Amino acid sequence: xSGKAQSGSPKSTVSQPPMHQPLRWLLLSLxxxxxxxxxxxxxxxxxxxxxxxxxxxxxxxxxxxNTGAAFSFLADHPGWQxxxxxxxxxxxxxxxxxxxxxxxxxxxxxxxALALIxxxxxxxxxxxxxxxxxxxxxxxxxxxxxYPAFNVADIAITLGAIGLIWESLFGERLRxxxxxxxxx
Length: 184
Prior knowledge:
The protein has 184 residues and is of the alpha+beta class. It is built from four helices and four strands; from the N terminus they run H-E-E-H-H-E-E-H. The protein has a four-stranded antiparallel sheet. Helix 3 runs antiparallel to helix 4 (152-183). The two termini are 24 Å apart.
């Protein structure tokens, strides 16, 4: 198939061909992993543990080790959570990679969102398996309130989740509008 709807068939998202080389999105995942691990290595070598370095009045670089999940969820447990969160990240990455391989040609936002989540999950998975904790170093605060420290992998996962939400709310509608404009 040439990537266009067959003549005589109605144009709809259902008739869209599969994405050409969908696993190219994994290059974005790889870029996230490389950027994440490089920034964590720099933070680990340049910063003292739990010693904030002010960058802006509301932003510090602060090296912290998180044995839990987001917002230090389950961090105070004896260590079993390391393996639970590692298994979740591995299974999720495999499942999302399969999902990417099945995307249609018009689902580019979905491909990017899934790739960001995979890259973030793999970056944090590496930390859990190698160190036993996730390296966090980005710390925002205001008026004595501190948002939990995070890293590049967490940013990628968050942006990917936002992309998935956007896609689920507006994706089909926007593709249908584009196709209607193309037919007119």
